Amino acid sequence: xxxxxxxxxxxxxxxxxxxxxxxSIVKTLYDEKEGTSVPTLVKTSDGTLHKISDSSMLVQLTVxxxxxxxxxxxxxxxxxxxxxxxxxxxxxxxxxxxTSAGPILVSVNPYKTVSVGGKSLYSEEQMMMYxxxxxxxxxxxxxxGQLPPHLFKVAERAYSALIASxxxxxxxxxxxxxxxxxxxxxxxxRDQSIIxxxxxGAGKTxxxxxxxxxxxxxxxxxxxxxxxxxxxxxxSSLEDRVLSSNPLLESFGNARTLRNxxxxxxxxxxxxxxxxxxxxxxxxxxSNYLLEKTRITTQIDGERNYHIFYQLLTGADENLLKExxxxxxxxxxxxxxxxxxQKKSRRDVKGFxxxxxxxxxxxxxxxxxxxxxxxxxxxxxxxxIDFEESDDDGSEDAGNSENAQITSAAIVHLQKAxxxxxxxxxxxxxxxxxxxxxxxxxxxxxxQNIAQAQDKRDALAxxxxxxxxxxxxx
Length: 474
Fold this sequence. Notes:
The chain is α+β, with helices and mostly antiparallel strands and 474 residues long. It has helices spanning 81-93, 124-131, 151-165, 204-218, 225-232, 235-253, 294-297, 307-315, 318-324, 346-361, 366-383, 411-421, 425-433, 450-473; strands at residues 23-31, 36-44, 49-51, 98-101, 104-107, 115-116, 119-120, 181-184, 187-190, 254-255, 263-264, 267-274, 281-289, 387-389, 404-406, 434-439, 442-447. A three-stranded antiparallel sheet has the order 1-2-3, with no helix packed on it. Strand 2 and strand 3 (49-51) form a beta hairpin. It starts with 22 loop residues before the first strand and ends with a helix.
């Protein structure tokens, strides 16, 4: 049953043609106009009666497998939109948030902690189960003898294929023009890719962290002598640094939106390198793209700027805040949104401590961290540089009230921003208030109006923050 249910309740719920619910026909009436019997009263599985007006809304689910929520929807006898969506709904209702579609994993965000046998769905026991080949005979296998769909299963498949391709005699994979191959002894190593996609709030950020945590953990659980030597020489710290990249980039590249409290506002491509002989992580790199720069200066009501601004204002000690000129709190800065709660968030306080720990792990000392926080603070001070109409700016257009000048109250923010960025105050002021046009070898000085000066101010703020973000990624 789908779409346009004529019921006094759940009108919104059943109004989309893309929603399906199993039902049984309770009563059919004869349509005198059409001269046929049309089902008009149906009952859903919860016992609720609904009236429908169009028999074409009924889609047949005829086999038992349509009603039990198979772990792999490609095993359904008839793969239709109705049977697929109903399988996902059934599995979600019993906390089976992962469903396979062949090699593809479909994930439905539960927005809660899911447990298996009293332990987390992402516990070390679960990791061991998916990594250990003998687990396929454990009590956790399904009716087909397979482990349930899971992110660990996807990560293990990619990891095993990579390691196998690098082992002589095991990696005889056919060459593919779409895959990069690296010669490794007598074999050809074949790169593996995992693509994580979905709309905002689908769980892409968390899925990335779960997969990276799994890869870091399984590469450290071997008892091989060579691996033990690598761990002793510092390989484990490399794994920690790889994992630290996620919360660090979240602080500087994620923000709260109306749909998601921790929405990634940039795209990223993470490449993790392995030694196919020992199976351990030997390096990683991150490429970022499409950072949402407009969020640095403006946000819609109810949304926030990037997490790091609020973390710094709520988690830093008073001495640092005073040194950076941030004693006014969140409400004192124009770039931090309106109609937001002014209470200190424990999540932001905890997030600031985690950010500092991650910065330390990637090799940045306290002085380096202070430089980073100076850039963040300078961005906020730039946002508080306000403009007003000028009666006289010393140019040929003196007396033009459309010309802009910095307000007396905003001068302190200009001074602080320039000091934190290491820029010349007079030059920055001139750049904001004037435009220089070269015509025929001559330079014309054109004063800017308020809107133009604001655009220049915002452009500098975006450049400062996005440059810091790119530097952090590198």
